[in-house]
């Protein structure tokens, strides 16, 4: 009788343990299935306060996502000048094929800027890729003011030497169509600059005049400074 009772107890314990194991396994499987079935969270919409629109004479609107998280002072400067109408009508005075298109000088010579003080550099780890938008400066690091350039192609030699504050997200074809030259014979211009949050509609665009591309020549970093 004692042996039979021991066998019965062992069997009961085994069945109870097996039932618990099945319950745990089923619970984990159900939770995994629920997680797998849940749709991924939608990405946060870009903040229109940090989106710059450039309406170009080449025929369309260029949209630039600005990066206040890495260059807050530079983004704020661009927004301030844009809302003042500073960039409206300003030409691209320095455009090097295969490198970049530079604008932001109301004099159109590369020597001008705004009446605001120069900015302290905010060099960051954001690379200079196609469509990257970065601040121009002199040979001194803390001299960015109003001028900026848009890269046609990656230029990693500029990384950590110029303040990147944004990147083109649409309309790069209108950047590619900017007239080349230093200065160009018939410069392209910013017809209108605006911040997306202000809901400024684009102006009427004339049919663009496409510039002929010249063979790409080797570029040095000093060329950006006019040396």
Describe this structure in words.
The chain is an alpha+beta fold. The chain folds into two domains: 1-38; 48-225, Cyclophilin-like (Cyclophilin, Beta Barrel), CATH 2.40.100. The protein contains three helices and eight strands. Strands 3-4-6-5-7-2-1-8 form an eight-stranded antiparallel sheet. A hairpin with a 3-residue loop joins strand 3 and strand 4 (100-103). The longest helix is centred in the N-terminal third of the chain and has 36 residues, at 2-37. The chain is elongated. It starts with a helix and ends in a 32-residue tail after the last strand.
Give the overall form.
elongated
The name CATH uses for the topology of the largest domain is: Cyclophilin
- Per CATH, the architecture of the largest domain is Beta Barrel
Task: Write down the Rg.
Answer: 29 Å
Q: Which descriptors would you attach to this protein?
A:
alpha+beta; Cyclophilin; 2 domains; 227 residues; elongated; 3 helices
Describe the structure concisely.
With 227 residues, the protein is an alpha+beta fold. Helix content is 23%, strand content 19%. The N and C termini lie far apart (105 Å).
What is the secondary structure topology, with strand pairs?
Layout: H1 2-37, E1 51-56, E2 60-66, H2 72-83, E3 92-96, E4 100-103, E5 132-135, E6 148-151, E7 164-170, H3 172-176, E8 190-195
Antiparallel strand pairs: 1-2, 1-8, 2-7, 3-4, 4-6, 5-6, 5-7
């Amino acid at each position: 009788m004692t042996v039979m009772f021991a066998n019965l107890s062992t069997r009961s314990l085994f069945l109870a343990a097996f039932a618990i194991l099945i319950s745990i396994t089923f619970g984990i499987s159900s939770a995994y299935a629920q997680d797998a079935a849940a749709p991924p969270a939608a990405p946060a919409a870009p903040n229109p306060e940090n989106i710059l629109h450039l309406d170009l004479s080449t025929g369309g609107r260029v949209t630039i996502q600005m990066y206040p998280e890495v260059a807050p002072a530079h983004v704020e400067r661009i927004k301030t000048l844009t809302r003042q109408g500073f960039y409206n009508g300003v030409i691209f005075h320095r455009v090097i094929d295969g490198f970049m298109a530079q604008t932001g000088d109301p004099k159109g010579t590369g020597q001008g800027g705004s009446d605001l003080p120069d900015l302290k550099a905010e060099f960051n780890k954001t690379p200079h890729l196609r469509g990257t938008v970065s601040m121009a400066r002199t040979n001194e690091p803390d001299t960015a003011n109003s001028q900026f350039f848009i890269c046609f192609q990656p230029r990693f030699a500029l990384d950590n030497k110029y303040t990147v504050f944004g990147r083109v997200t649409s309309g790069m074809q209108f950047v590619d169509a900017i007239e080349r030259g230093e200065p160009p014979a018939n410069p392209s211009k910013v017809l209108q600059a605006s911040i997306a949050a202000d809901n400024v509609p684009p102006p009427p665009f004339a049919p663009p005049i496409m510039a002929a591309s010249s063979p790409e020549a080797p570029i040095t970093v000093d060329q950006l400074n006019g040396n």
